[in-house]
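Inverse folding, one chain.
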């Protein structure tokens, strides 16, 4: 009977002792045991290899694997592991120390050999610029238009380009080419490092924007934002001015050509699409603390303060940059190349993403290219009302201070209709059914369903305010009711921005240190206005930093409501598709969708819906190809188009720890991200600011990393301190009374929703947050505190007819108005008219 000590083979003597007793050989039993071990080991290795191969194959199908860090990166990571708290602490300390806006980098001096340009040279340069514009116009006569329902056309319509901006852009185009000609005449050679020719002498060209007059004691803002600052009435924060440069630009030729690599070996910047694919690939890291409403309100706010003008054909038609040969290409084209091995676009034989440069803004002098902001910088509700008097009049009823609305058969109020079938939004089948897209104060209102819902919400809220003001002040005329409603609405927008939105982005602690929280607990807090602060929007803010919200967007949203079963909707299907608002409770479902869907984290990763399907064609439109655009590639390309310097330049300007070397950058971002960046960028000074900023881990109590925190907080400090009509002002005719201010301090976005949706019954107190703590529980709309209009009630003073000669009815009305205790300072140009109701 076999036992444990029985040899596995019989007929052979057992070994005399352990193997080590026989130094010259191995016992038979040991050899058999070793063979068994080898067999088992090989079998185990084979199984492991098969499993690993299967895992790797599955992983490759989902995403490209990260390469293991190189020794240099491992060393850098070790540094980062030993000093993460130190690096983060230095960044936090630098940010907390900046309690006033950072001084913009001084304008670079004229870099030409001779600073003085004689009249002949200046005239020749301007002539060359005018000729370049003429050559462009000749070329434009034969340009092929972008197909109306194509992704490229919808992208164009998602941006903004009005007729006044087109006129200014032509002047800016002349200036740019005049600067190029002067550089040729004076043998300008671009310097090492950042390429920027600097600001030069004045260019003598007519400027139609300087025709205006100011009343600095007016209670209400101008539509265009002019006259806000006494010393700089046309420049500080007004519409139709160049973006402010936080740091000097970086152009390939020092003048206007998009940024290129600084490498001395001729290396080019990696294509924007490659950056998107390799660094900003898809990942789905949900942040359960916040909702998509954060992104929706952020986009609505962004459209209130920024509206970059695109270059276009003379009548505003979009330029097609991918259908022509290089010789036929429009000079304002800067298309995004698609590489042959692109995993998505190769399926559709797409070799180019259409990209048209932002329109050049006139500056009045020789110098580098600037871009035009068509919006006012101030949080003034211009996204609702428009930035011109003409736009405001078009949207008004001119009756009881209200704005035009379309009233459906069941009595719901929608935005005014846009019946233009060539606007990139309207569809023939919907128009046939009597359903159209909409008009608002901003041309981008139809870009996505959630944004359109926000426009409708605030337009309804204006009329809510107008009705309330008229009820307590029946003696107010249309103009006064409209302007006071507009003033209250913009104050509410600003309060929600600083009370609910910004603390999420930069953290409540830092927001408090920087003075970015409302003074809700101290109605006697000092006036924060500073006439020396320029509130104009920074180019880096519009071109990079405030595009952070694109990383928040999930691919699928929870389209749920109080009375329906849960369902989901893909993000790209909501673009230029506002037609569900025509349905009963359409706005309710849209707002609850935004309030009940968690966002993704602010990081370098984006959903495929953002990087592949933006403005994707619809099968019924018979457009080829059906593939969408990559919004991340377009964002990166826009930064280069604007001449935004590289990531380390902005870090240095914000007084953050340096990232001039790869080893230093390892202290700012994680090792895997750095590995991805190093694979395609030749130097830290090539890294796009958009990519670098999104790659930083968030600070404590915030969703932003250090650089985004710096760029965004600096801009919002400027918007608060540099606005003479700021809602918390304690001085001047613009101020609210304490009783009025208390009502504004009570506003939340949830209250705006409850007051103006169709039939929303319940929402969280702070709808941008999804946390379920007691401070953010659900509130019943029927129980919210009502807005008290009595704080705005005024009583007309008795008219002493015996002391005033009154010749007719109009004179009597004028006397009553001049003697009334009105909150408006100047009498409206239009006399009060009897109600038409």
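Residues assigned per position:
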């Amino acid at each position: 009977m076999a036992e444990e000590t029985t040899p596995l083979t019989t007929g052979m003597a057992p070994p005399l002792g352990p193997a080590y007793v026989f130094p010259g050989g191995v016992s038979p039993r040991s050899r058999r045991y070793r063979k068994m071990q080898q067999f088992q080991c090989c079998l185990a290795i084979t199984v492991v290899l098969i499993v690993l191969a299967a895992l790797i194959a599955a992983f490759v199908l989902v995403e490209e694997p990260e390469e293991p860090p190189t020794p240099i990166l491992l060393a850098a990571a070790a540094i980062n592991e030993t000093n993460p708290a130190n690096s983060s602490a230095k960044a936090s300390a630098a940010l907390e120390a900046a309690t006033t806006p950072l001084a913009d980098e001084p304008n670079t001096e004229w870099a030409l050999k001779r600073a003085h340009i004689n009249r002949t040279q200046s005239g020749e340069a301007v002539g060359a610029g005018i000729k370049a514009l003429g050559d462009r116009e000749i070329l434009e006569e034969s340009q092929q238009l972008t197909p109306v329902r194509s992704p490229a056309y919808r992208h164009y319509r998602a941006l903004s380009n009005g007729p006044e901006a087109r006129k200014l852009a032509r002047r800016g185009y002349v200036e740019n080419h005049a600067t190029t000609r002067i550089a040729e005449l004076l043998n300008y050679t671009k310097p090492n490092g950042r390429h920027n020719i600097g600001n030069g002498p004045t260019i003598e060209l007519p400027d139609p924007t300087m025709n205006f007059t100011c009343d600095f004691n007016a209670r209400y803002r101008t539509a265009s934002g002019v006259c806000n600052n006494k010393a700089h009435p046309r420049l500080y924060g007004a519409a139709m001015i160049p973006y402010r440069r936080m740091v000097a630009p970086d152009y390939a030729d020092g003048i206007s050509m998009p940024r290129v690599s600084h490498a001395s070996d001729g290396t080019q910047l990696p294509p924007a699409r490659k950056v998107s694919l390799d660094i900003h690939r898809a990942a789905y890291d949900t942040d359960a603390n916040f909702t998509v409403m954060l992104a929706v309100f952020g986009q609505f706010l962004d459209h209130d303060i920024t509206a970059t003008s695109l270059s276009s054909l003379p009548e505003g038609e979009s330029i097609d940059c991918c259908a022509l040969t290089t010789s036929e290409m429009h000079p304002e084209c800067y298309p995004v190349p698609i590489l042959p091995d692109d995993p998505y676009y190769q399926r559709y034989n797409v070799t180019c993403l259409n990209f048209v440069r932002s329109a050049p803004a006139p500056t009045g002098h020789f110098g580098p290219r600037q871009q035009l902001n068509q919006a006012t910088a101030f949080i003034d509700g211009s996204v609702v009302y428009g930035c011109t008097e003409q736009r405001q009049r078009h949207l008004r009823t001119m009756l009881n201070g209200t704005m035009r609305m379309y009233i459906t058969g069941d009595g719901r109020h929608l935005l005014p209709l846009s019946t233009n079938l060539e606007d990139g939004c309207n569809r023939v089948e919907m128009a046939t059914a009597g359903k159209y897209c909409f008009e608002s104060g901003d041309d981008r209102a139809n870009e996505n369903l959630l944004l359109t819902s926000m426009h409708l919400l605030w337009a309804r809220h204006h009329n809510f305010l107008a009705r309330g003001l008229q009820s307590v002040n029946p003696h107010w005329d249309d103009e006064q009711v409209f302007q006071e409603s507009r003033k209250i609405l913009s104050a509410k927008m600003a309060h929600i921005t600083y009370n609910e939105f910004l603390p999420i982005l930069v953290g409540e602690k830092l927001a408090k240190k920087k003075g970015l929280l409302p003074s809700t607990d101290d109605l006697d807090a000092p006036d924060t206005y500073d006439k020396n602060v320029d509130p104009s929007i920074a180019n880096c803010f519009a071109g990079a930093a405030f595009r952070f919200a694109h990383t928040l967007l999930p691919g699928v949203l929870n389209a749920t409501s109080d009375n329906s079963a849960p369902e989901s909707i893909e993000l790209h299907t909501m673009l230029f598709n506002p037609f569900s608002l025509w349905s009963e409770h359409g706005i309710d479902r849209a707002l609850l969708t935004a309030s009940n869907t968690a966002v993704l984290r602010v990081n370098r990763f984006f959903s495929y819906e953002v990087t592949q399907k933006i403005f994707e064609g619809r099968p019924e439109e018979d457009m080829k190809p059906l593939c969408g655009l990559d919004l991340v590639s377009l964002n990166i390309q826009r930064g280069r188009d604007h001449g935004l310097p590289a990531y380390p330049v902005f870090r240095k300007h914000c007084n953050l720890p340096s990232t001039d070397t790869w080893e230093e950058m390892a202290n700012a971002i994680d090792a895997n991200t750095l590995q991805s960046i190093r694979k395609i960028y030749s130097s830290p000074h090539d890294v796009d600011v958009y990519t670098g900023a999104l790659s930083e881990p968030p600070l404590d109590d915030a969703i932003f990393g250090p650089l985004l925190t710096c760029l965004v907080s600096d801009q919002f400090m400027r918007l608060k301190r540099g606005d003479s009509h700021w809602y918390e002002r304690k001085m001047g005719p613009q101020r609210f009374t304490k009783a009025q201010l208390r009502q504004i301090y009570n506003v939340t976005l949830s209250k705006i929703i409850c007051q103006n949706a169709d039939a929303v019954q319940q929402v969280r107190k702070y709808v941008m947050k999804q946390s379920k703590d007691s401070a953010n529980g659900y509130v019943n709309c029927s129980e919210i505190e009502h807005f008290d209009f009595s704080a705005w009630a005024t009583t007309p003073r008795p008219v002493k007819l015996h002391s005033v000669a009154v010749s007719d009815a109009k004179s009597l009305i004028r006397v009553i108005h001049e003697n009334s205790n009105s909150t408006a300072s100047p009498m409206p140009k239009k006399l009060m008219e009897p109600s038409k109701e």
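Residues 28-62 form the longest helix (35 residues). The two ends are 113 Å apart (CA to CA).
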